[in-house]
Amino acid sequence: MRLSFRYVVVFIMLLIGAAPARAETLLDSVVSALDNNPAIAGIQDQVDAADHGKKAEIAAYYPEVSASATAGRIFQDNSTSRGLVTERGAAYSGYGDGSVAMRQMLFDGLETKNRVKAADARLKSKNYDLLETKEEIIFSVVSDYIEILRIRSALILLSEQFKTIEDYKSRIVTMVKEGVADEAELQQALDVSMVVDSVVADYEGRLASVRASYYEATGRESKGGFLVPPSVKALIDNDIVKAVAVAKERHPMLMSVRMASNAARHDMKVEQGKMYPDVSGELSYNKVDKKDVIGGQSRDARAVIKMNWAFSTGGREFEEFRKKQSEHDAASRKILEVERQVERRVYESYAIYRTMQRKKQLSADRVELNEKLVDAYRSQFEGSRISLLSLMRAESQLFSAKLEYSDNRYNLLAAEYGVLASTSRLKDNILSAGAEVKGNLPAKGE
């Protein structure tokens, strides 16, 4: 019996996708995501905005220069004109007025200092947000990359299984025609084939979904086959308590909320500083030019120190301070919340990793057991002790065990990268290593 057109197409696509001439590495995918993902560009814009905000606050330390000029014609009736002009007591004159001043803040209750520190903390918080966004996107790329490899490997196994099943079905059909087997055996063989067909449909649907996720992260379709990334087991710290401590110390998500809390603390101090008077120094020069009959020329040069202080009798300053104090308290509690999230992620990633280690070993043992079982069934079939359908089921069970082992190998690899992601070490290790394992997966048991 011939293979269905669908399986031929799937098998050809898998062979084309595995062509080494067009293969791309995990590093290629990660770099593409870092270059093309709009989420990263959006956070980078926020970092740039925070940087400009910090520089704007620093500018308050420098003197402020102002200048003004007025020119035209005026009419005035004042005591000077009335004393000099006998006809109407008023006069028309050309008019020119120019002034320049420089003001320097001397003391503002440390408002400027705390504004600068708050802006600096926000800039650092945004930088940590950028790092966290990159880590999340890279982990998404890694997960999708390994998942595509897992599904392609599974489809290749299922294609091989389908060919084996088709061979058994053909032999059973011949036996039914010869009267050696009954129709029920053929129906059961068809059922096994349908089960495989259903599994293939599930994997194909999953592959389409993962490809969409991969495109979202990297901005491009896969150009060809993927190379299997190396294991990072050697980078995983077996001491989970130590791993949690390291994550709490350096995780960008946690560092971001800490910086946000620091910014809220300085915002609170800014409001506190508004309760103090502002002291500034001023150098100014002013010159006025008009006719003598309405005042004549005048010059005014000053070097003074000014003190300004205003206080709301309704207690506005106190309420603004208490508002910022509450915001700081909320930001401080956010740190405790995120600490627990980071700790949970680390414990979950280690739990998945250790579970996958056990499942991989169990599936390897299951493959070995079913290989022995198939060998025994073949001997029994040759001795006419079991039916061809029983041998077919044993072969199908072996393929199922191999499929499970293949899935678990890739799942374990993904879990290893998941541990690095939970401790925020994924990006640095991928970009610094840049090395990939070329060829197929390691042999069973390696």
Q: How would you portray this structure in words?
A:
By secondary structure, this protein is of the alpha+beta class. It folds into two domains: 5-36 and 109-275 and 315-433, Outer membrane efflux proteins (OEP), CATH 1.20.1600; 63-107 and 276-310, Outer membrane efflux proteins (OEP), CATH 2.20.200. Helices cover 67% and strands 12% of the residues. It has eleven helices and four strands; from the N terminus they run H-H-H-E-H-E-H-H-H-H-E-E-H-H-H. It has helices spanning 5-17, 26-36, 38-58, 79-84, 111-177, 183-218, 240-250, 252-273, 316-382, 388-422, 426-433; strands at residues 64-76, 91-107, 278-289, 298-308. A hairpin with an 8-residue loop joins strand 3 (278-289) and strand 4. The longest helix has 67 residues, at 111-177.
Order of helices and strands: HHHEHEHHHHEEHHH
Low-confidence region ranges:
1-21, 435-446
Mean pLDDT: 86
Q: Which CATH class of the largest domain applies here?
A: Mainly Alpha
Strand order in the largest sheet: 1-2-3-4
- Taking all Cα atoms into account, the compactness measure Rg is 39 Å
CATH homologous superfamily name of the largest domain?
A: Outer membrane efflux proteins (OEP)
Q: Which structural class fits the helix and strand makeup?
A: alpha+beta
- CATH topology value of the largest domain: Outer membrane efflux proteins (OEP)
Number of helices: 11
Shape: elongated
Strand content: 5-15%
Based on the coordinates given, report the CATH architecture of the largest domain.
Up-down Bundle
